[in-house]
Design brief:
This protein has 347 residues and is an alpha+beta fold. The chain has nine helices and 17 strands. The chain binds ligand EPS.
Length: 347
């Protein structure tokens, strides 16, 4: 079983990540993880924090001479902006953020400790986890990628930029959608035998855990609900050269909670960032009087980054499913089991 834990506050000393359950013998290089961290920081519409940080990872455990040894992989990402105890108190919670629900839940008289952890800064640690999972998946020729599909309802690149500029000008924020594609997945990850083993359920949970995601869909998605079955399901064909194949992928690569060998295609829909430079109405939690919501340094748009984080969450889940099915303590054992399985199903 693969599992992870992450820790760290937005303006704390560092972000931490521990990934446990990887086999021995996997070559993990810092550069591969740093490249993913840089991708998370990119995208049009990011805020000033991205000018301050240049996220890089320090691998502090789990490797010997660059190879995994089966023990937990511990990683650290330092925060340049380490200022948590100098940050001002916030008593006017932002609608759409965790501020109000969080401070009531944890018994704070200030939203600062809430947003320190609820901030999307923590997603850097998730991307470090995902980057290692991608390195593992690459051993099986499985790739995970993402692309932005729309921003504020616009789908053409120039128009997407324009609407982000408009949001900035209007002191507003804007959301959008992205697509995650998982390619090279074998038939048979996940299962229908128990609800919590369904691959679509696991991937949905993974992507919905990304801050700001309000909806997701697989393959044809919502459109499935509007069509007859004959125009939704992917007819099955067989040829000696290709084995079983389909001409369409409306299922998005998953049938009955199991990967069917086609690309897994997921779209995520992200709400606009909660911090508005022209804030909405809020209430001062001390006086209970009306007050505009707090303004914090934030992004105008972070859809591209959310796509990268969704890739990471997806990579973790697929790696976990792969390990469940072909599990072993050393990479070679897993590869052998994987090859034997591929041989069996090709007959
Ligand atoms: C982010 C870091 C944060 C925010 C942003 C994402 O840094 P700071 O609060 O110091 O500006 O820029 O967080 C949010 C959008 C949010 O809602 O909390 C990051 O590293 O991605």
């Amino acid at each position: 079983m693969l599992r992870y834990l992450i820790a760290g506050e937005s303006h704390g000393k560092a972000l931490m990540a521990i990934l446990e359950g990887l086999p021995s013998g996997l070559k993990v290089q810092k550069e591969g993880i740093d490249a993913e961290l840089a991708r998370r920081q990119a995208g049009y519409g990011r805020g000033a924090r991205m000018q301050i940080e240049k996220d890089t990872v320090e691998i502090i455990s789990g490797l010997h001479k660059g190879l995994t040894i089966g023990s937990p992989v511990g990683m650290l990402i330092q925060n340049k902006d380490f200022s948590i105890d100098r940050q001002a108190a916030i008593t006017n919670p932002r609608p759409g953020h965790a501020d109000l629900a969080g401070l009531l839940k944890y018994g704070f008289s200030d939203a600062r400790p809430v947003l320190e952890r609820a901030s999307a800064r923590e997603t850097a640690a998730r991307v470090a986890i995902g980057a290692v999972c991608k390195i593992f998946l690459a051993e099986f020729d499985i790739t995970v990628s993402s692309k932005v599909l729309s921003i504020g309802g616009k789908t053409i690149k120039e128009e997407m930029r324009k609407i982000i500029d408009e949001a900035m000008r209007k002191k507003d924020s804007v959301g959008g959608s992205f697509e995650v594609a998982i390619r090279g997945v074998p038939v048979g990850l996940g299962s229908y035998v128990q609800p919590d083993r369904r691959l679509n359920a696991r991937l949905a949970g993974a992507i919905m855990s990304v801050p700001g995601i309000k909806a997701i869909e697989f393959g044809l998605g919502l459109e499935c609900a509007h069509r007859f079955g004959s125009r939704v399901h992917d007819a099955i064909y067989y040829s000696k050269a290709n084995g079983y194949y389909r001409k369409t992928n409306n299922a998005g690569g998953i049938e009955g909670g199991i990967s069917n060998g086609q690309d897994i295609i997921i779209r995520g829909y992200m709400k606009p960032i909660a911090t508005l430079n022209k804030p909405l109405a809020s209430v001062d939690i001390k006086t209970k009087k009306a007050m505009l919501a707090s303004i914090q340094r934030a992004d105008t748009c972070a859809v591209e980054a959310a796509g990268v984080v969704a890739e990471s969450m997806t990579a973790f889940e697929i790696a976990n499913c792969l390990l469940e099915k072909f599990g072993g303590d050393c990479l070679k054992d897993i590869q052998q089991a994987y090859c034997a399985y591929l041989k069996r199903i090709s007959r």
